[in-house]
Design brief:
The protein has about 325 residues and is α/β, with parallel strands linked by helices. It is built from 17 helices and eight strands. The chain is globular, with a radius of gyration of 19 Å. The structure holds hypoxanthine and zinc ion.
């Protein structure tokens, strides 16, 4: 193990872009399929992993929504979330802001309450037993109509104490942020934080819409902002964080090769980029593996790694006081 790999492993960090459904490992998928008597179109864990070869976002999404069908009972959502948190403990991750896709479940007849209560109970236990703090972000599926997103927001209203923010995910191209202008306005009026996937496959115009119309607090992915210098300048001026996901970008062919990943360029321009895993069960690695593989591919320096870890707290929805404590811990670790 290289010195920088050791350094990454011990570095305190936060994860800001993680879909809980994307942390469903094939082993747990099989266990839940058996527990819930659901048939899945694979014979073995190896066959599932072999099917995880994607040439774009949509090919991944088709398999990801299929995998989520094994999640039925509150305990299933608990087990999914708990498995992710214990995995994050091993990566020395101190804080997570995780997405879930309620419509993937409510559209199959699963109650919103079952989904959120299972996830929330695991997040509370994660805080108590693992010392990992967390916020939950509810995503709207952008391939569905805005009216469906409104129904989801209504279902969430009795649970607002458990939800920090709303996001926008699923098939990007053809479903611009402007399609969801009204529901995001309602979410903002409820005091929720706003994030959106933008510029993963979609053009810079979608990032402008996310800024101007949705009034986002943070950009998920955002890679394609680099095609527009004015947009880059604006993102820097507004101090917005980008939740970049290198192994996801590689798996979904957003980049040809990790050595071509623009993360170093983003940092050099002054963008507040962070490293995240997106859907680790599907893209071959959790948080530290994303740091380690990217470090190796583009020669991230120790100082860049420190900046990335600090950005993960600075870009979080924690209080300034909590952010300062975590960044202080990073200073202590990197000096020690
Ligand atoms: N992009 C869009 N939707 C998603 C993703 C992603 O990377 N992961 C899970 N849903
Ligand atoms: Zn994502």
């Amino acid at each position: 193990m290289s010195n920088l790999e050791k350094f990454i492993n011990g570095l305190p960090k936060a994860e800001l872009h993680l879909h809980l459904e994307g942390s469903l490992e094939p082993e747990l998928m099989f266990e839940l399929a058996k527990r819930n008597n659901i048939s899945i179109p694979f014979d073995s864990v190896e066959a599932v992993r072999a099917a995880y070869k994607f040439s774009n976002l949509q090919e991944f999404l088709d398999i990801y929504y299929q995998g989520a069908q094994v999640l039925i009972n509150e305990q299933d959502f608990y087990d999914l979330t708990w498995a992710y948190l214990t995995r994050m403990k091993a990566d020395n991750c101190k804080h997570v802001e995780v997405f879930f896709d309620p419509q993937t479940h409510t559209d199959r007849g699963i109650d919103f309450d079952i989904v959120i209560n299972g996830i929330n109970r695991a997040l509370e236990d994660g805080k108590k037993e693992l010392g990992i703090s967390s916020f939950l972000i509810m995503c709207f599926l952008r391939h569905l109509p805005e009216e469906e997103a409104f129904k989801t927001l209504a279902m969430a209203t009795p649970h607002l104490a458990k939800v920090k923010g709303v996001g926008l995910d699923s098939s990007e191209v053809g479903h611009p942020p402007s399609k969801f202008a009204n529901v995001f306005k309602s979410a903002r009026d409820l005091g929720l934080k706003i994030v959106a996937h933008a510029g993963e496959e979609g053009p810079p115009e979608y990032i402008y819409e996310a800024l101007d119309i949705l009034q986002i607090d943070r950009i998920d992915h955002g890679n394609r902002c680099l095609e527009d210098e004015k947009l880059v300048a604006r993102i820097i001026e507004e101090g917005l964080t980008l939740t970049v996901c290198p192994l996801s970008n590689l798996s979904l062919c957003v980049v040809k090769d990790l050595t071509q990943h623009p993360l170093k360029v983003m940092l050099a321009k002054g963008l507040k980029a962070t490293i995240n895993s997106d859907d680790p069960a599907y893209f071959g690695g959790y948080l530290n593996k994303n740091y380690i593989e990217t470090q190796k591919a583009i020669n991230l320096t120790r100082d860049e790694l420190i900046t990335l870890a600090k950005n993960s707290f600075k870009g979080s929805f924690l209080s300034q006081q909590e952010i300062d404590v975590h960044c202080g811990d990073i200073d202590v670790y990197s000096l020690g």
